[in-house]
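Section: Multi-chain targets

For targets with more than one molecule, the full set of components is provided together so that the structure can be written out for the assembly as a whole rather than chain by chain. Components appear in the order listed by the source. The example entry contains two components.
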Amino acid sequence: MKSRMAVVGVGQTSYKRAHTELSSADMIWEAAEKALDDAGMDISAVDAIVMGVAPDALAGENGVEKTAIFGAGKPYVRVNTGGVTGSSAAFAGASYVGSGRAKVSLVISLERMGQATTSQQVFNTIFDPVYEKDFPLTTITMAALRASMLMRVYGYSERDWAEIASRNYRNALKNPLAHIHKDLSPEDILASPLLAWPIHRFEACPMSEGACALVIAGESSVGDRVPAWLQGMASTSDAYAMGDRFHRPEGTLVDLLSLRRSAERAYADAGITDARKDIDVVELYSPFSSAEAMAYPALGFCAPEHGPRFVQEQFTDLSLPSFNPSGGPQAANPVSATAMVRIAEAALQVRGMAGERQVPGVRRAVATGQGGATQFSTVCVLGIERPD
Amino acid sequence: MTDTTELITIPGNWNFDYTYFAGEAASRFFAALKDSQQIMGARCPSCQRVLVPARSFCDACFKRTADWVPVGPEGTLETFTIITAAFPGLPKPPIVMAYVTLDGADTALVNMVNGLDLSDIGAAAAQLQRQPRVRAKFIDEPQGRITDLSFVLI
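Its structure, encoded as tokens over all components, is:
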């Protein structure tokens, strides 16, 4: 990282199926107000605002964020990179600070999908209208196509998917902001209806609404605030077509090349040489268990062929990082905000402010983001130590 | 706001019609489906990959594609899902969707797989996990759309 900056404020609404008591602008306002309160700042201290909202059709409002402009007169950008929107917005906000064009940026992401009666029909419209939209491609089937390939290539089982999901739900019991508070065992997940083989209903992320905001401050503006220093940030794209990724030597459809490359660059900036030892908490963008499994090798925790073994290891080897102490996206998936929530939760862990879900002694946390069919991935490293 | 304020909801609906412009490469690809039931790939002059379905450029090399070559009609199933739950606006389950690498192609094509016995989902999944060989089967009156074909097991 060329310039030093930190997350000094985090604000989140709760996440749930619909915030029926809040307008879209109210949700943005609540998250922004909480983040500024946490940072002990007024809106006048903010030099730039970045907003993240993914497909407008999920809310049924074009530019759903536009009614919440505050601090008019400041630079303002809206970002949409699908599922990775939230972290893309945070990275854009960090770029304002890193480039010296802002001392402080406020980044916010909003998901208003509670206004939609169904999401999968909307998600079908994110696919290519020429070659793909006539098929039942959705976020669920996109995940299922990869989950079945992971089972064939690396030997994962339906049981592995259920165990990962169960761990996430049980972690979420300690997170009052999570959408789903259910003590679901692996057996409960396997017994839930099959949506698209091999994915069962309780393995799939919920439709959640909510907003998340971060205050990102350059070193000179950190003062006596509690910082989560941004030690490494990297964002990488990949080919659009999933079909193009089966036969390339550098990584197949289930090898998450974009996440691996982001991790390599962000770790290099942060000075991480051994992911298993140098990281205490990982907040993963994993709306499905298969997304979590694909992230293990991409983030350097194991060789791809040892993924199924790592599912068990991370339950039993206490020296390994804690995965998704918040419960992750399987317990709350406000699509546009989800990738920012990962950074927010990682920042709370580093700052020792994660309440009942706090992992003791966190020195460094990693947050990931993924969008499209992992066409875009981000890795963000936050820590207690100020970068050199 | 007082505790007695009734929260208002307002009904809404998005239902717009669009015309999607496929571009020259896809138009040529679709014409071959309609006129000769042939599946065409476009070769990247740099990496030499045959991209299927055909596109005007290779996004890995930032090169325009040049040669067009027929591929298939047989190929190998790469991965699949069996959709078992009904979603509004999507086809009625159970249905199978898969990526297939057609013979001569370097990329996989997504389409439906028809004609499978889906009475036992687990058994059907196990069969598809063995990466069966498949053949593209065309509808009786091709329209010049990607839905002119689907896959059947050989």
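Residues 23-36 of chain B form the longest helix (14 residues).
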